[in-house]
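Schema walk-through. Below, the input block comes first and the output block second. Nothing else is stored per chain. Lengths vary across the set, and this one has 101 residues.
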Amino acid sequence: MKPSIKGINSLSLQSNKKNMDSKIISINPEVLSGMPVFHGTRVPIKNLFDYLETGNTLEKFLEEFPSVSREQAISLMELAENILISNAMIYEDIDRRMSSL
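--- output ---
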């Protein structure tokens, strides 16, 4: 499914790390129909999670997709971790507040 962000032709998510090109994810309707990819590549970010889910290593993924740097892959996993932890904390807070009503 193509992202539908009205008026935006491309989008990049960035890392806070100062020692690397901070762009991690790019979304551009002209690259793989807007599928989120590793910035500067045509490699869908989903590919990394698919590789890890099937038991492959990060090293195997990087061998198969040499246009993705180790730093990009690690930054993506850190971003996903931060999002999951933040969301879990939000849901825990909501659940606690609902329980006290």
